Amino acid sequence: MRILIVEDEHSLAQQLHQYFSHKGFAVDTAATAEEGRYFGDEFPIDVAIVDLGLPDFSGLELIRGWRAQNRTFPVLILTARGRWQEKVEGLEAGADDYLVKPFHYEELWARINALIRRAAGKAHPVMEYGPYALNTTAQEVRFRDQPVELTAYEYKVLEYLMLHPGKVLSKTELSEHLYDEDFERDSNVLEVFIGRLRRKLDPDGTLKPIETLRGRGYRWAFEEK
């Protein structure tokens, strides 16, 4: 998942960057609304966290601009402004959720996960496809009720595939949503991760949960229960 953090308080922005990087996100950070607008317009953002009190123009104006341009990724407002009128204004501007500082990271994590699931049409944190189950909150994968040990990058690839079942995802699209800009997209790293996932999820080679469409990309082949 690719997350955009628009926050002008440097120490908090660093903490958020570190937290979501540790959770396996590709993270873009912006200290001004103009920078945030650039990232939101030019990159395939999956979810954004936006402060309201930015140095150039307000987070509300930033969100309104995205929505006017049909940028539909979910947005969570993270701000010290806690009056109910300000919450209403933020939601009416196009935000999907609102969290007041100071906050608990566990709550922020739960809200961000919920926004990503809803954007993908998933109401529950556990996605089940045949013998496979992926818990987006705990970041755990099970095969026939047995845990599957995955590296952070393997999990990221699998989660994105399972959030978009039946959709053909090109290598470029996967890379843009899963990795920072310095990721070497011309390498065969993604192919290596797909190969590892296949061996771990389908050791007998009979289920074939991840399909390769030559010249087009990859597709998660199982339908959700």
Question: Can you characterise this structure?
Answer:
The chain has 225 residues and is an alpha/beta fold. It has two domains: 118 residues, Rossmann fold (3-Layer(aba) Sandwich); 95 residues, Orthogonal Bundle (Arc Repressor Mutant, subunit A), CATH 1.10.10.10. The model has no long low-confidence stretch (mean pLDDT 92).
Describe the secondary-structure layout:
Elements (H helix, E strand, L loop, with lengths): L1 E5 L3 H13 L3 E5 L2 H10 L4 E4 L8 H10 L6 E5 L4 H10 L3 E4 L4 H15 L6 E4 L2 E4 L4 E4 L2 E2 L4 H12 L7 H8 L10 H13 L8 E4 L3 E4 L5
Parallel strand pairs: 1-2, 1-3, 3-4, 4-5
Antiparallel strand pairs: 6-7, 7-8, 8-9, 10-11
Helix pairs in contact: 2-3, 6-8
Largest sheet: 5 strands, parallel
Assign the CATH class of the largest domain.
Answer: Alpha Beta
CATH fold assignment of the largest domain: Rossmann fold
The end-to-end distance, rounded to whole angstroms, is: 23 Å
Average pLDDT for all residues? 92
- What's the arrangement of strands in the largest beta sheet? 2-1-3-4-5
User: Roughly how much helix do the residues carry, as a percent range?
Assistant: 40-55%
Name of the CATH architecture of the largest domain:
3-Layer(aba) Sandwich
- Strand content range: 15-25%
User: What name goes with the CATH superfamily of the largest domain?
Assistant: Response regulator
In sequence order, what are the helices and strands, one letter per element?
A: EHEHEHEHEHEEEEHHHEE
How large is the count of helical segments? 8
Cα shape: elongated
Number of strands: 11
Spans of at least 5 consecutive residues whose pLDDT stays below 50 are none
Tally the structural domains: 2
What kind of assembly state do the chains in view correspond to?
A: single chain
Rg, nearest Å: 18 Å
Helix-strand category: alpha/beta
